[in-house]
């Protein structure tokens, strides 16, 4: 671990906190809309798998400590673990790792494919956690169709658009920093 990498990691974690706080839209949905996926994908592209996932882990940890950095009420605290949407935060950690691992730091196509894989990882973890919390913790009758229609379909198009933006911006940043 060198100082420069840690500084970039801290800066990205701070940016994630800011994105989580500023990108809130009042919504009755169980899964809030957020610009956070764009910044998660950027984090993986720019920092790579190790430091990208570390930056997202720091963001999640700060939120669990009680800082109001998450996109929906109560915006932070350990109780957030019991929210159905918390799985997407865990999925963000995995997504940043996957994006950083798959991106070859050379082309937009590579960035786009890495982002698509990262979005897939985000949804696999997020939807699984969503189902488990709804079914076992909140004891609500839940089907896979309900989970997909609530936690996937309303968001996938927007996340693909945000991912495309992240792939382009991230690839440009990496190309210019080499």
Please sum up the structure shown.
With 178 residues, the protein is mostly helical. It has six helices and no strands.
Folded structure, characterized:
- By secondary structure, the chain is an all-alpha fold.
- Helix content is 71%, strand content 0%.
- It is built from six helices and no strands.
- The protein has helices at 3-22, 36-65, 86-102, 108-137, 144-151, 156-177.
- Helix 1 crosses helix 2 and helix 2 crosses helix 3.
- It is globular and about 50 Å long.
- The mean pLDDT is 91.
Estimated share of beta-strand residues: under 5%
Percent of residues in helices comes to over 70%
Contiguous low-pLDDT stretches (5 residues minimum) are none
Total of DSSP H or I helical runs spanning 4+ residues: 6
Profile the largest sheet: none
Describe the structure using short key phrases.
globular, mainly alpha, single chain, 178 residues
Secondary-structure map with pairings?
Elements lengths: L2 H20 L13 H30 L20 H17 L5 H30 L6 H8 L4 H22 L1
Helix pairs in contact: 1-2, 2-3, 2-6, 3-4, 4-5, 4-6
């Amino acid at each position: 671990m060198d100082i420069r990498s840690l500084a970039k990691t801290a800066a990205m974690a701070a940016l994630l906190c800011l994105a989580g706080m500023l990108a809130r839209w009042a919504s009755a949905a169980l899964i809030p809309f957020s610009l956070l996926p764009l910044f998660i994908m950027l984090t993986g592209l720019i920092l790579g798998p190790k430091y990208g996932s570390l930056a997202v882990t720091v963001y999640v940890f700060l939120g669990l400590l009680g800082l109001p950095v998450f996109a929906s009420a109560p915006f932070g605290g350990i109780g957030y673990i019991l929210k159905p949407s918390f799985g997407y935060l865990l999925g963000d950690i995995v997504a940043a790792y996957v994006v950083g691992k798959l991106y070859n730091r050379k082309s937009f196509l590579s960035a786009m494919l890495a982002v698509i894989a990262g979005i897939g990882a985000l949804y696999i973890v997020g939807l699984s956690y969503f189902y488990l919390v709804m079914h076992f913790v909140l004891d609500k009758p839940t089907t896979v169709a309900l989970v997909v229609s609530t936690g996937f379909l309303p968001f996938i198009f927007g996340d693909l658009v945000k991912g495309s933006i992240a792939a382009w911006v991230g690839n440009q940043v990496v190309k210019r920093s080499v």
